Amino acid sequence: MNSANTTATTDRILVCCGTGCIANGALEVAEAIEQQIAEQGSSATVQLKVCRTGCSGECEAGPVVRFMPRDLMYYRVRPKDAQAIVASLEGAPVEKLMHKVDGKAVEHMADNPFYALQHKIVLANVGVIDPLSLDEYRAAGGYEGLARALKMTPEQIIDEVDKSGLRGKGGAGFPTGRKWRTAAGYDVFPKYIVCNGDEGDPGAFMDGSTMEGCPHAVLEGMAIGALAIGAEEGILYIRDEYALARDHIQHAIDDAYAAGILGESVMGSGHRLDLSIVRGGGAFVCGESTALMASIEGRVGEPRAKYIRSVQRGLFDHPTVLNNVETLASIPAILRDGGSAYAQIGTDSSKGTKVFAMVGKVKHTGLVEVPMGTTLRTLVYDIGGGIIGDRPFKAIQTGGPSGGCIPESLLDLPVDFDTLTEYGAMMGSGGMIVMDDCSCMVEVARYYVDFLCEESCGKCTPCREGLRQMRSILTDICEGRGKPGDIELLERIGHTMEDASLCALGKTAPNPVLSTIRFFREEYEAHISNKECPAGVCAALTQFAIEADACTGCGMCTKACPAGAISGDRKEAHMIDPAKCIACGSCREACRFGAVLTTRRTA
Amino acid sequence: MTDQEKGERIREIVAAYPADQRHALAALQDMQHAFNFIPEEGLVELAKHLGCPQAQLYSMATFYKALSLTPKGEYIVKICNGTACHLRGSMNLATSLKSELGIDPGQTTEDGLFSVELVNCLGSCALAPVMVVNDTYHNRLRVEQVPGIIDSYRQGGASDE
Fold first, then answer.
1. Chain B contact for A512, CB < 8 A?
2. Does A582 touch chain B (CB under 8 A)?
3. What CATH number does residue A525 fall under?
4. Do A389 and A284 share a domain, yes or no?
5. How far is A282 from chain B (nearest CA, A)?
6. A14-24: per-residue pLDDT in tens?
7. How close is the nearest chain B Cα to the Cα of A391, in Å?
C-alpha cells in the first residue's frame, strides 16, 4: 500500500496504540512525536502522517514505533525520545531504541526473530493501518472479499469457506463451512449472525486486539457470513472490559453505514444488513453460545441444554450462526484470495493460521500469529526468546480455564486442533501462559478452579458443587492439610463433571486439575505426603533463605520485601527473618544472582 | 445529586430504550455508569417501562459482575488477577492493599474513597502485574510501590473536596 511512495524513505510513522502500549504511555509518545514534527518539520520532504495503529504484537517491548515504508522499528519508546526519533527520519537510526540480535542493533521487523517466524493473515493489517480509517482498510484490500461474495450465490460462498478448511478458532474447532451450511438450510426468518467477542479467558487478548486493530475485518467477515446464511441482522457481543475494542468497532460500524457497506443495500447489492454491539455484563459463562444468546435477549446469562442446536433455534428462537472474532476475521482473506490459497497453510486437519497471546514467564510476551502445526518449542524459544532469566521451562497452560497444562515432554508436538487433544491437553482459544520452575502446578490448578467457582452460573449441580469441592480439596493440599486419597477424589469429581455438566464450561472445568494431575502428579504427592511445595510458591509449606556465598549484598531483596524481613549491610550477605517473612517470593523475583533459596517449611 | 435529579436521570436512561426486554442489560449498564451503582428506584422504573417483574432485573443485577447494587468508592482500584498477573504476584498486591486500606477485594472503605476489586484479565498481560485505578494503569507493579500510589490518590481526593 506504500507503493505510491517516491523519494522519501519515510512517509508514515506508526505508533502502536493497542491496549498494552496505551497502558505503557503510547498516546503520550504519539503526541510528543507529532509535536516534534511540527517543530523540526521544515526539513521533512513529504507530508508525514503519525498513525495510531492497533497492536503490533510485541507488547512487552512497547510502546513500539515504526517508520514506513523504510521499516525501521523502535521499541520501549518514551515521550522524551521523540526528538531523537524525529531527528532520525533523515539521519542515522537511534541505536538504543532498536532491537538487538547478538548485541547488534537491527532495523527491520523481519530481522527480529519475534516477527520473522510469524505468518499474519488475521493480524495482517493489525499494527499496520489506522484502525479508525476505512480508506486505509480498503487500500489494503479490505472489502474486496465482500465484493467478490456479492457476485456469488450463498452456496458458492459456503463452498469457498469449506474449501479453505477453516475451523472455529474459539477453541472447539467446528468446521465453519458446515455450520454456515446448516444455518443456510433452514427456511425460518429472520436469521442472525453473532460475533462472539466475549473473550473471557484470563491471559488471552487475541480477539480484543483484533477488534481494536482491524475492526473492519470482523465486520467484513460478518457481512460475508450474513450473505451465506441469509441473515439481515448481526450482533457483536463484546466483553465489558474491552472499552477500546468496543469504541473501534462502533466507529467502524458508523463508517461502514456512511459508506453504504452496511444498511439498506450492502455495497449497492440490494441485500440488507444491520450490525450492532451488545456490551457484555462481565460474566465468563456468557462466552458459551446459549448463555451468550440469553444475555443478548436481556436475560441472565445461563446456558440451556442443547437438544436443539442454536443454528436451528438460537437467538430469539431463530436460526443463528455464532462465530468467534478470529474466525470471522479470517473470512475476508479466504473470499479475496480463494479458499485453496488458505488451505495451503497449516496441517492436514487444521488449516490456516492461529493467533496466540503468549504471556507469563517468557522473554518476549505479546501477540503472535503462526501457521497451524507450529511446535510449542518454536513458539516459546524461537519466537518468545525462551524463559525469563533462562530458568528451566516447566509447563505451558493453554486454553484458559477450560484448557490444560502441557509439560516439557510435549513441546515438540505440532499445535493444532487435534494433536494436543490426543495427549490430554488442548490448543484452546489461543491464550498461552508460559511457566517456569517457580510456578506451582497445584496452586495453578487451584487458581483456575477458584476462577471457575466464581464464574459458574450455578444452574446445574455437577459444575456448581463439583467446583466447590475441588476448590476445598485443592486449598487443603496447598495449605498442608492434604490427605492420601485426595488425588483420586479429585479425579473422580472431575470425571463426573465431564460427564454430567450441562454446558461446555462445566464439562471442561476439570481440565486444569486433571491435566496437572496427569503430567505433574509427583508435585501433588510432594504437597500431600511431604508437606512440601517444590516450586516454593505455597506459603504455608515454604520458607525462604539467602545463600550467603551467592549473595553479593546488593540490597535488591531488601527493597522488594514488603514485610521488612530482610536485613544486612551493603556488600555483605543478607538474612531473612523467618518470623517476619510472609513467603511472598518478592525477594526471589528481585534477586539477580539466584541467591534466594526455598526449602520445606519446618516451623 | 438530589433525589429529584437522580429520578430525572433514571427516567432519561430508561426512556432512551424501546420497551423491549433485549435492552434491559444496556439500560442497567447505563445506570451503573451514571451512579456507580444501580439504585432501587432505577430497577422499579425500568421494570415498569419493560413490563417485566422487578425480580427479573434484580436477578440480572446480581448475576452480572459489571453491575452492583451497592455504591462504590470514588476510586475503584482493580487488581488484575488474570493468569499472567497471578503468576507475577497479583495476590501480593491484594495483601498490600489490605494492609494499606483495611479492606478485602469486593469492599469499599468507610470514607467512600476506595473500592478494591479483583478482576479477571484486563488484556495487558505483557505488563503484568497490573493495577488500574479508575482509568489509570499502573504496570509491572511491585508491592513496595502500592502505599505511595494509594497516598497520591488520598491527596488528590482531599484537594478535590
1. no
2. yes
3. 1.20.1440.230
4. no
5. 5
6. 998 888 888 88
7. 15
